[in-house]
Amino acid sequence: NERYYLSYVVDPFGTTEPMFVICDEDAQCREVEAGELSVCPLPVVTFHVATLVDALKQLGSPLPKGIVEIRDGLRLRSGLSRDQGGEAHWNIWESLKPSFDEVGDLAAIRDAFETKVRLPGRAELFRLLSAASRALRELWLKLLRDLVWQKEERRLLEIEIPVQQVFFARQYSGIEIDGDVAERCRLQARDCKYRAFREVASILNISPTGLNFRT
């Protein structure tokens, strides 16, 4: 039943180093390298796993043996579909808010994660991610208690999480393509597009370079 709780920030533009901070069951936090996550002996509870998978692939680090997307548990607890407004109940930042001592810290880590602001210094970023990892731990423990009461815990642990592992592995491995074939398709699409431009321009009696979305 032991797990690690991971908060992280990665820069999709590659201008700053990523940071990964895990919290253990005793609420002790430490920074780890991407490679350490890959050999983590315990399942890792985190959020926005799709972003994490892309980051680890870019860094050349294998996936951990078990990744748990906490939002899957939040979806299960809400019992609501997207059409029923369930998305508001799956929002990780709103769900974490009660577990933060400082609301300003939550806003800061959310903005850093979403690359809305320049990342703070490493010491401050570690402090923020540590707070987020502890909040994630608190949210997970409460979520499990709620799911036990709803009789949905086994479904999460034995069905939802294992199925998601397949999707995460599929995302990481990607789709193998033939580069030569892809380039030929791109060129064919380009030529087709410009043939259509010339035909439409001829019908409208204007220059093909004068075409825009309206025309």
Tell me about this structure.
- This protein has helices spanning 34-38, 49-59, 70-78, 87-90, 92-96, 103-113, 122-149, 153-173, 179-204; strands at 4-9, 19-23, 29-32, 44-46, 67-69.
- It is α/β, with parallel strands linked by helices.
- The chain has a 5-stranded mixed beta sheet with strand order 3-2-1-4-5.
- Helix 2 (49-59) runs parallel beside helix 8 (153-173) and helix 3 (70-78) packs parallel to helix 7 (122-149).
- It is elongated.
- The model has no long low-confidence stretch (mean pLDDT 89).
List keywords for this structure.
about 220 residues, alpha/beta, five-stranded mixed β-sheet, about 10% strand
Low-pLDDT residue intervals, each spanning 5 or more residues: none
Which range best describes the helical content: under 10%, 10-25%, 25-40%, 40-55%, 55-70% or over 70%?
A: 55-70%
Order of helices and strands: EEEHEHEHHHHHHH
Rg result: 23 Å
Gross geometry: elongated
Looking across the biggest beta sheet, what order are the strands in? 3-2-1-4-5
Average pLDDT rating: 89
N-to-C terminal Cα separation, in Å?
A: 62 Å
Strand content: 5-15%
Number of strands: 5
* Secondary-structure class: alpha/beta
**What characterizes the major β-sheet?**
5 strands, mixed
> Count of helical segments?
9
